[in-house]
Amino acid sequence: MTLKIKRIAGERHARICLSGQLRYENIGQVKSELERGGPRAALDLGEVDLVDIDGVRFLNACESAGVAILHCSPYIREWMLQERSRPKDHPELA
After folding, report:
1. How crowded is the C-beta side of 6, counted as CA atoms within 13 Å?
2. Spans of the chain, pLDDT less than 50
3. Among 22, 23, 41, 65, which residue's Cβ finds the most Cβ atoms within 10 Å?
4. Which residues, 6+ apart, have CB-to-CB distance to 52 below 8 Å?
5. In 10 A of CB 32, how many CB atoms?
6. For residue 69, which of 40, 44, 46, 49 has the smallest C-alpha distance?
7. Which is nearest to 47 in space by CA: 69, 70, 20?
């Protein structure tokens, strides 16, 4: 399965709705949609059923940059939290 991206423009912000699998090869497309959505764009993960580690890291980077992550499944949210708490200085410990 692939990733489907749908942008819904609102009065104040855009919502980028993702459906399917968020994998490394899709991150560039999602970044482009976020840029087109403007500074208050939000990612809606309500229909995302699978992510890879690069997807998790991308979602964490988005949140750090102020992008709202909406309707995130508990397993993805938990993985994001675990990834944030991992030591960055020693990759061999990861």
Report:
1. 11
2. 93-94
3. 22
4. 21, 22, 23, 24
5. 11
6. 44
7. 20
